[in-house]
Amino acid sequence: MKLKLIFLTVVLAIGQLTMAQVKFEAKVSKKKLGVNERLRVDFEMNKDGDNFTPPTFFGFTVVGGPNQSISNSWINGKRSYSKTFSYFLEPTKRGKFTIKQATIEIDGQVYKTLPVTVEVTGAVDKPKDGNNTDFVASENLHLVAEVSKSDPYLNEAITVVYKLYVSPRISVSNWRELDSPKYSDFWSQAIDMKQLKIENGTYNGEPYRYVVLRKTVLYPQKTGKLNIEPLTLTVSVDVPTKRRDIFGGRLYTTVNKTVAAGNRTINVKSLPEQGKPVDFSGAVGSFDFKVTTNKTTLDATESLDAKVTVSGNGNLKLFDLPKLNVPSGLEQYEPEHDERVRTNLTGMAGNISDSYTLVPQYKGKYPLPSISFTYFDLKTEAYKRITSDEIIINVRTGPDGGDAITTTESTNTGKRVVTQTGNQFRFLKLNANLKPIAKEYFFKSTTFWVSLTAPLLAIPLFLFFGKKREERLSDIRGNRVRKADKLARKYLSEAKKNLGNQKQFYIAMERALHNYLKAKLHIQTSDMSKDRIQRLLKEREVEDATAIEFIALLESCEFARYTPSSTTAMQQDYDKASRVIATIDKQL
């Protein structure tokens, strides 16, 4: 009987220990996702606790949560309890990120979750995050990449145009770049978009408005199938709801939507091997070629410029110019390379050149032999060769060199090849006719008397500026104003240095705005409520529009702590801050 009681006691104790075991763990909806997808993280526990502390979620932006849910049930006399804190996260960039430990206190003991590693890749074609995107926004907002040609030749220009299509059913209030394509297998050049223009068009047969966000010219540097990575944006979309205001107007809700242009694949053809010249350097397009000199008649030891120029349309920056052949009687210097190339939707256009400086040493006639340039013509899909004309340089006067110049070969054209064998520098003047410089003494000179009297004359100036300095130091209020104004300029310059670092940029800009208010309105940071700032600016006769812009800048600094921001948006905020501060200065 005692044995049975002991056995029953042990079983009950084990059961109590099992029931008392606390579980606290982190679960993610997926461990690999695209930069345009969203992630759900659940922190689940089987017993209620206090002081829940989430991790910092580095590499992500919290777009939803924390949402709390509790499940409590009894099955066959056994209690089942579950409490969950849920967060919805949006990646800020690619890479591998670790969701660190969350903590909670249960029955006086602190429990921690295990870290979870999540990999964020490039944007996927079809994001699978339906629980976190508004269906209406998804169906009425599209980012499209239009490629001008899907099967170009190697080094042939193609254009990628990114268009954002927006249905009339919704409106877009703001957008920012989340991830930019790398173009790792291409030479790329972005075309400057001076102004975004809204145009009407169609998407899948339906009327849409669209705006061209970016135009990029690409020159493929490899053959075969190459991938053009997608452009990814985060867009603030205003979506109509079923609710209406008291006047019957439809109410809208703002949805942050991530859209991507999708991967595009092109098949790059290699240039034909048949008929390919030996001296072909990779030029593809339509070109002209010439060799020119600025003079053909000159004297010995004078210089002339010979220029090798290629002009036209094609990959002008991606090949080498042919070298100039110079007779031995001409001294040649390293060429100076010049590029005058502009890039538009058709590719590169303009000219490139190498300028050689040539100096003849003796009189005579020097032939510059003709040289040739080969390129692949895209219109005829064949190789072409352009040959320059031969140029004769006539050196009229100068040392004949005696034995220094010997004719080694005569041709039917009467030209001769010149070689140098004697003393090339015998005509240089060796006697410089130098003259001694007269000695000058410092004592009793003008410099001596100026040095002697200058300290005496400076004494009144020191007394005057010392008095002004004492007056300035005694002006306590003025010193505070000047110090705050100096700090505002310092922080604005610090904000400019941190362009690209979102957190540091907006902290520095907010400090600059606060110190500017200290300087102009004579208030402390603790008194800087938005209503008080707006009222004080109005009392100082600052225009309402300017005051509203200043308040909007402060709100932008606060909002930027919780949402991702691009370098372009930060530059716009910086320019706006400089402009608003200058405007308030004028109005004050």
TrEMBL record:
UniProt keyword list = Membrane, Signal, Transmembrane, Transmembrane helix
**Does the keyword Ribonucleoprotein belong to this entry?**
no
Residue ranges of coiled coil: none
For this protein, the record's InterPro entries field holds:
BatD (IPR025738)
Which N-terminal residues, if any, form the signal peptide? 1-20
* Name of a matching Pfam family: BatD
Membrane-crossing ranges are: 448-466
For this protein, the record's PANTHER family field holds:
BATD, PROTEIN BATD-RELATED
- What is the protein name for this chain? BatD family protein
